[in-house]
Amino acid sequence: RGKMIEVPVGEEVLGRIFNVVGESIDNLEPLKPSLTWSIHRKAPSFEQQSTKTEMFETGIKVIDLLAPYSKGGKVGLFGGAGVGKTVIIMELIHNVAYKHNGYSVFAGVGERTREGNDLYFEMKEGGVLDKVALCYGQMNEPPGARNR
């Protein structure tokens, strides 16, 4: 019997690109992670979670005013081609890195290879690559892989 899919975690994943099963796909030297976590983990207990609701200040005025994000929450960004999703994502990642001294995980579900490549080099050029881990389930992969 096989084991659960485990992905590398920790600072060593920052600046790297992974597929949906946690394998690096950025053609850099192979990652030898000191720590991996299963993708199927129990949620934190209620005692471990904060009940305090706090707004996450994105630095993008229209989002902070009209559709504020909750600190510690998850956000999905949906829209058609060419509407500026990548621009907003880049700005959010930049603000998390520099205004909040934090880290981001970008999950590109159904991304085209070219779009993923462009985003990687934009982040590298913008100086935020060392503050983000990228995970792609690309269009050329089966739907089950993109759904992980």
CATH homologous superfamily - what is it? P-loop containing nucleotide triphosphate hydrolases
Order of helices and strands: EEEEHEHEHEH
Give the helix level as a range of percent.
25-40%
Identify the overall geometry. globular
- The count of β-strands is 7
Q: Give the count of helical stretches.
A: 4
Unreliable residue stretches: none
Biggest β-sheet, characterized?
3 strands, parallel
Strand content: 15-25%
CATH topology: Rossmann fold
Q: Quote the distance from N terminus to C terminus.
A: 20 Å
Derived from helix and strand composition plus strand pairing, the structural class reads alpha/beta
Radius of gyration (Å): 16 Å
CATH class: Alpha Beta
List keywords for this structure.
148 residues; alpha/beta; Rossmann fold; 7 strands; globular; translocase; CF(1); AtpD; nucleotide-binding; ATPase_alpha/beta_chains
